[in-house]
Amino acid sequence: MIRSGHASSRSPIQDAPRRGSLIRDVFASLDNRLRRIGEVRLAIAVLEDAVRCIERGHGTRQFQARVDRRDAERWIASRSRTHIFAFENICVLLRLSPEETRARIHSWRDRSRAACQT
User: Is residue 55 part of a domain?
Assistant: First the structure.
């Protein structure tokens, strides 16, 4: 692969964000002391599941994985706070900014798409 006139031995697949990197990115700012509280651990599991659905569903042909990814993306995009497990409520409980968390997820998704297209 050639970029800016320099040859590279890396393939687009190697340049793609790694599986699990999105989870590390989303939870990078999470206070470790919070992880010990039961309700917080449940909230972490809900958010991790959504993130994993997005990772698994990216670029796959498996129908269920694509459906799960789409559901997770809708859940993350929702601004509703009416349900106890709404994305906004989960972020508040975890002391994460919903907007910043969305931005991290969108950034990962955009990098993944760009890597797959090159």
Answer: yes
